[in-house]
Amino acid sequence: MAKELIRLTDCVMQFDDDIVLDHLNLYINDQEFLTLLGPSGCGKTTTLRMIGGFQKPTSGTILFEGKEINEVPPHERKINTVFQRYALFPHLDVFENVAFGLRLKKTFTEDEIAQQVTEMLELVSLRGFDARKVTSLSGGQQQRVAIARALVNRPQVLLLDEPLGALDLRLRKDMQNELKRIQQQLGITFIYVTHDQEEALAMSDTVVVMDQGRIQQIGTPEDIYNEPKNAFVADFIGESNILDGIMIEDYLVEFFGRKFPCVDHGFSHRESVDVVIRPEDIDIVEPDGGHLCGTVTSVTFKGVHYDIIVDFKGFKWLIQTTDFYPVDSFIGIRLNPEDIHIMKKSAYSGQFGDYSSYSAEYDEISDPDAEGSEGSADEE
Asked: What's the mean pLDDT when you consider all of the chain?
């Protein structure tokens, strides 16, 4: 049974008339790798700073092991932070950068400091780098030093504010694996902030998707990706075709003028819904064997697959396929019940999911009333 470590209750952060966090409720378990994910300005870094004690909520409470810590200063919390800018001391070598926090406490002998620093450098794969100047290190090595400096004080929680943002793609992926390994090896709680969806899905036990100061969904990476709660989550986590639909009855939805079996239930009779279909879940077939038919308007090679945009008379879908279909190809698609995901309508409905902007045929979307007219789509 997971043990709750941190709880934010009805937390609001307001600057003048600007509400950055809007009645946030969240709990974080001990030894959990939790990621706050969302676009710039959604409130994720503000949430992290409140937990760390760098900002005090306008209202609401923050509990740590059941005790309120709103007034507890950062240095008295069992929490350390790694920022995107590592803030290392350029005049000190690697050893002294990591040892800095231990020396401030003035409770450790030189032998104890040496032992703990050596253990941390080994943990972050920097054994033998003790005497190196931090200015001579690569970006990835500097990041490891910053992590070791934060962990040497043995915090219960490590906050990481987009710490991989300055690294190139290959190094980011390597460090994702390293951070997960370190978190599991130490058994402490990591709270991670990122706007990178792939990073969040790859590293986290729990993902918290945020927008406009509110939590949109909390769940495992698999739940967030496979069962998004609204159109914002579906669009932000990966690519999605999002259509207007009507839930005829349990396990049966209608869109594009056709009825499709699905695996969802619990909606009202003929309730208006959003229908999500991931690009990788669509099967391309011959036109005479398709549930729907359309024309390819754009093809982009992505290495392991092609991104193709298919026009179904005004509403354009993204399909990912390993097979090449040239522009102007007329194709059919088939949809399996488990590939059709149903969401309740929300404030985000109608804002995402049409890939017309990926097409060069901008004349087709010049009339906003004509765009996305699903009733005119091919039924066969």
From this structure: 90
